[in-house]
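Priority: medium. Attachment 1 of 2:
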């Protein structure tokens, strides 16, 4: 058997068992060693090429020495096994610590957990992690493990921490007060007594030193070289968690800043929309409480700005106009188009058009507001003119729900099957006429009044809406009022608001 093989066997776990398997075999190695019954002894130098014979007395001496060395070998192997087990346990503990650190994204909590872990891994009394603040030229820590509250800030070039940060080289000191580099100010401030100290740089993936970590007062003696190696490795892994937490913190700050900016923008926009909504509402006509015709309305846009608009006015002493238009969509665009249509009607800006002729009015509006010039938006409209001298209502509509004429328990639908407005140029719109009697009620509305999704499922339809308005009111006399209609639709949907603009105008003829 060659000597180098024996040496390798002697250094490997399980060597005792291998030696036992050799039995009472005597082997002379070139170095003059004898292998016998689990032991190794030196023998006088001789001719290593020839077998050596021993008498009984020599064999006894070799066997005795062999037994003693065998016991020493077993003890050594036991110590090696224990050290290997301890190292494995420490590796497992370090792996668990690093896994826990990787899941912590709050920077201050992470720094505290790193200090706790470093103190525990090195069996130290306390540990401190300093990070570099480039803006202030300082090293800072949220708090030193073992101290109460506050934070620590020191110049980036002061003391041992400053030296390690600047050089990137670890410092291991057995007695801090015998080292001139040690700055005792923190000890004086806190009443703590630093003895042994181990300080290592914290280096990120780019190789830049971002801070230092130092452990103080190792239990059981000064810090060892192995402690230094472990702390360096731990610091390298901790730096990744620190960079991740910093990045997360930066992203949080960015999100908060963007959220504040968005909130401010939304607040300004909300204010502007509210102002616009007030403006639109001021354009709507005031109720008419007396005279030959009385008018009232209810208007609840589903958003701040809706796509519905309406109006009524005396064109002259014998012609009273009433209309309602509903632009496709909701929001600012729809509101702008709807208000534009209303302003055109109120200011009689349709050149060469008789406002007393509903068919002419709708034909002119259709040409004035083509959808290809208004964001592909179209609109529906009902427009009527009442002439009290003839007790006649002339009306026209384009894609709009028919007006309802309520008369002593019956409900007449007043509509003309014309095309939506804005879809086709030069479209002619037909008109129709209806006799009006004293006591009649005319309802002009948008489809948001009756397109109600019921809480139990299904939709409320135009037919059901018409039947509801034709029934006697809750008092047993007349038809339901506008407020009763609103309460009824809210009750059906189970919501306070409506999914579409709720617009309805009521005219009562005397």
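Attachment 2 of 2:
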């Amino acid at each position: 058997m060659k000597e180098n093989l024996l040496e390798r066997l002697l250094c490997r776990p399980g060597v005792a068992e291998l030696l036992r398997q050799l039995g009472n075999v005597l082997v002379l190695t070139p170095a003059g060693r004898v292998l016998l019954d689990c032991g190794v002894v030196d023998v006088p130098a001789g001719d290593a090429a020839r077998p050596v014979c021993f008498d009984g007395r020599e064999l006894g001496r070799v066997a005795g020495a062999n037994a003693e060395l065998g016991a020493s070998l077993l003890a050594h192997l036991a110590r090696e096994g224990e050290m290997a087990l301890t190292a494995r346990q420490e590796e497992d503990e370090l792996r668990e610590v690093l896994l826990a650190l990787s899941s912590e994204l709050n920077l201050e909590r992470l720094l505290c957990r790193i200090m706790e872990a470093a103190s525990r891994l090195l069996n130290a009394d306390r540990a401190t992690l300093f990070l570099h603040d480039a803006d202030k030229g300082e090293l800072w820590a949220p708090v030193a493990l073992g101290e109460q509250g506050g934070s620590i800030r020191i110049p980036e070039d002061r003391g041992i921490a400053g030296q390690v940060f600047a050089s990137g080289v670890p410092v291991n000191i057995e007695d801090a007060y015998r080292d001139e580099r040690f700055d005792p100010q923190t000890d004086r401030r806190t009443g703590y007594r630093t003895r042994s100290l181990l300080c290592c740089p914290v280096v990120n993936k780019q190789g830049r030193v971002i801070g230092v970590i130092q452990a103080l007062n190792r239990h059981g003696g000064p810090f060892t070289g192995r402690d230094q190696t472990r702390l360096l490795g731990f610091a390298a892994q901790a730096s990744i968690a620190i960079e991740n937490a910093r990045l997360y913190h930066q992203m949080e700050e960015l999100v908060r800043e963007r959220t504040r900016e968005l909130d401010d923008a939304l607040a300004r926009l909300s204010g502007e929309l509210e102002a616009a909504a007030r403006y639109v509402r001021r354009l709507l006509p005031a109720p008419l409480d007396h005279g030959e015709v009385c008018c009232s309305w209810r208007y609840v846009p589903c958003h701040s700005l809706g796509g519905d608009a309406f109006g009524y006015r005396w064109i002259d002493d014998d012609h009273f106009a009433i209309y309602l238009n509903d632009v496709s969509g909701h929001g600012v665009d729809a509101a702008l188009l709807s208000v534009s249509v209303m302003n055109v009607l109120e200011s009689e800006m349709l050149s060469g058009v008789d406002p007393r002729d509903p068919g002419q009015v709708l034909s002119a509006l259709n040409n004035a507001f083509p959808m290809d010039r208004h964001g592909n938006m179209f609109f529906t409209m009902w427009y009527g003119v009442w002439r009290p001298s003839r007790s006649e209502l002339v009306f026209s509509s384009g894609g709009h729900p028919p007006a309802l004429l309520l008369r002593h328990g019956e409900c007449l639908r007043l509509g003309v099957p014309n095309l939506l407005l804005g879809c086709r140029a030069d479209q002619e719109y037909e008109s129709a006429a209806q006799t009006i009697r004293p006591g009649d009620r005319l309802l002009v509305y948008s489809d948001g009044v009756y397109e109600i999704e019921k809480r139990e499922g299904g939709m409320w339809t135009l037919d059901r809406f018409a039947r509801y308005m034709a029934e006697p009111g809750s008092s047993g006399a007349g038809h339901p009022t506008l407020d009763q209609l609103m309460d009824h639709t809210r009750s059906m949907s189970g919501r306070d608001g409506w999914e579409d603009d709720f617009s309805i105008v009521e005219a009562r003829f005397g």
